[in-house]
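Q: Hi! Curious about what DUF7705 domain-containing protein looks like structurally. Here's the sequence.
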Amino acid sequence: MEHQLHVLFMWVTLVVISVVSGARGKQHISAVGDPGMERDELRVAFEAGNFCNEVGEEAPGMGSPRAADCFDLSNFSVRHRVAEADNKLGVGKPFPGAVNNVDLYAVQKELYLGSLCQVEDTPSPWQFWMIMLKNGNYDTKSGLCPENGKKVPPFNPGRFPCFGKGCMNQPILYHQQTQLLGGDTLRGSFNGTYDLGSDIGGGLDGISFFEVVWEKKVGAGSWVFSHKLKTSKKYPWLMLYLRADATKGFSGGYHYDTRGMLKTLPESPNFKVSLTLDIKQGGGPKSQFYLTDIGSCWKNNGDPCDGDVLTDVTRYSEMIINPDTPAWCSPKSLGSCPPYHITPDDKKIFRNDTTHFPYQAYHYYCAPGNAKHLEQPVSTCDPYSNPQAQELVQLLPHPIWAEYGYPTKQGQGWVGDGRTWKLDVGGLSSRLYFYQDPGTPPARRIWTSIDVGTEIFVSDKDEIAEWILSDFDVLIYTSPIHK
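A: Let's find out. The predicted structure is below.
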């Protein structure tokens, strides 16, 4: 009997140790207010920006390019928190915080819509998923975009697309408020075009188009976001993303207070991103489709950004899964590579080590234009497309990323290969090269935006991308998963 009790005690002890160890190994919290997109009462917003993430000029009759669809459910009835009059607010129309400057009006409108949509939660309230649409046209004669944060005068046209005056316009936006259909299906959408005066109801030939439709069964599964983006001759460079942004502070690419879904900000290395992605059409060879795009901001000396566009630097890391996207980084183009690569076991491989450096793992690296101690050769990032200087680390599928759960070869996750991913974004982002001034303490890599979508980069013909995104979540591990 004593022996049996001893064996039973040992068995119970092992079970308890196993359960506790397993719990510790998997212990995490969701960083987003709507974990896995499973909350019936949706919060989703829309923002459009010109080449440098500003407004410049509102589209006629559309108001400021910010909108939201946020609702509660009561007895299978949809109660909207945002009226269409709120979505149509534009310069000259008052609301709490309204100003007359067209760029700052949009900022305040986003905060106002956020206040209407806000959900109280722990450790902080949150507002909405953000659909971001961006027009890549840049009228260099307009003087609208700064150069690495510094105001510059107009200059002659060059490498940026623009059909002439007005090419940086904001889009026509149509909104179908979320409705309950058939008693158990919720559906709504945003769509529209940049081609002012055109009628998308008459067909899409020759015009640009964007659409995001969201749908969910009440009480079951995830919201399913179906995206469509079409370029045109006048608008050959368009971007469409679904973003989880900071609920307060600067989201990636902005220099003012924004609103979003990230109630807890993920910090490298201890977070992962899970999502289901099914790409129906890729958008052609110029479509830089991002399985994930993470954005943050810190200064070259490692300090957090404070809104000073002359010293702040937007930092991005993007995994491009379009198999048509080549590696610009190569032994013959070292300036398109980061100075070194760090392996999962923390070994540093310099880019001139032609035997070991994984050139095919990098599409392109570019350094911030305001950095003062750059290692040559170097390519600096476009100085105009963000309100401050920026740094990009663009990755491609490669075996070196296997440990982080990313695609290891071209074609994985592409058209016809829809998958559910669990990506160790935190572990990978902790080992990527980002510029920092010599002798300064390492910046904390805190990510204020995580998004999925595509950038169709100056297509030479009309292209269409279509994809479906669901189950999106950002998981923060409360006990370290990386040493």
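A: A fun detail: Confidence is low (pLDDT under 50) at residues 1-24.
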